[in-house]
Sequence to fold (510 residues):
Amino acid sequence: MNRLCNSLEPRVMDDDMLKLAVGEQGPQEEAGQLAKQEGILFKDVLSLQLDFQNILRIDNLWQFESLRKLQLDNNIIERIEGLESLTQLVWLDLSFNNIEAIEGLDTLVNLEDLSLFNNRISKIDSLDALVKLQVLSLGNNHIGNMMNIVYLRQFKDLRALSLSGNPIAEAEDYKMFVWAYLPDLVYLDSRRIDDNMARLAEIKHQYSIDELKHREHLIQARLEEERAQREELEEHKAAFVEYLNGSFLFDSMYAEDVEGNKLAYLHGVGELLVTYKDKFVIICLNIFEYGLKQQEKRKAELHTFKECVHEAIQENQEQGKQRIAKFEEKHLLSLSAIREESDLASMEVKIVEYSEDITELSNVLMTLEMQLVEQLEETINMFERNIIDLVGLFIENVQSLMAQCRDLENHHHEKLLEISINTLEKMVKGELDEDLPDDVRALFVDKDTLVNAVGASHDVHLLKIDNREDELVTRVNSWCTHLVDKVSRYNQQAAPTPLATSQEETRPLP
Fold:
């Protein structure tokens, strides 16, 4: 079949081909005629069959955003591409093509069944995103390394695997190896795996599998640790104090300080740096711990605000429902009585009474709604004041602590300059017994050069401190402005009417 297909001219996957395929596979008879007249939207198509079309390249499928099943077998496709938008895809058939590498599947996170039978694939990889994969067909390819089986251990839902027709399937230990290393597999090469044979395979490869499990455990532990570190870092970023829980800022000051690193060779500077670093890191830790505490206060303020808004809406709606229930109870039979009334004058009196009650109910509900709007406005204004005050206090205290960092830097600068001048004087008198590198000695050609070098180091340090402070202040102010703006927009929207039921969803709060 594949050879017959390849004898034709390659075709392009254009809109005409796709429209024809959708039309032929769509509803028939009366429903089909109606669909043809009105047109079938690609975004609504769930299944698409494009086999035996002599397609060379996958293209123009971006509109099929709801597609769940795609059949592209028996074509001349050379690369897996153009599938990025098909995130709902569950079933994909690319068998009997000319594909050499597994690729282009990173967005297909819902894929459960993948067939790449009869291609030119030599390695099983690039399937990591397919966490729901249950069926994988890779028969009649060029896979020769048994370690490809080990790669598949990460797919915990994989139940059916086909590898017949590959070089590895000719190996004497092929089946035993697969059964041992993929213990959750149910079908191999279209045959159900015998439980007894699977146990024997596990016993045979137990030593290797135990070693593999140990390595996998270490890798998993490392990944979990990295994930925890990323989550922790995100928490620190939310508090605007990331990388202040250690010597990161201090180290960054010297990372680009060429002159300061040279001056560190001078006698007495090493001890000076140790003291400077210790005191500097303590201040950074104070900023960090203070930032985390302030973040908890901001979160508590936001939580209280949400609760107050929710309670106000719920209470207001409950009052509205009670008034409506009383009205319905009073006028349960009013309409029937009006219809059955034979006396015109009596009927008009009842209609007037009924209308007055409706007007009264409408006024009560409107009053409740206005009360809710006023209550929400007062709550929001109070929240905005509180959050702005919290942010203002946070910035004020952080700037005070950053000023301490600058004071430390100024003190260090004075001491470093003093040591440098003393060293220069000893060098001029020939009393210097230190063995300094040539690039350090070059700083001591004259006093101006030396003072400029010490000043350049000082400038680098102050710039780093200033930049970190500016970054923190800018980000927290931006966060506060965005939050207040979001809350204000919420306030400007119409408040939920008291007619709403308790089950009705209200607009999400920031």
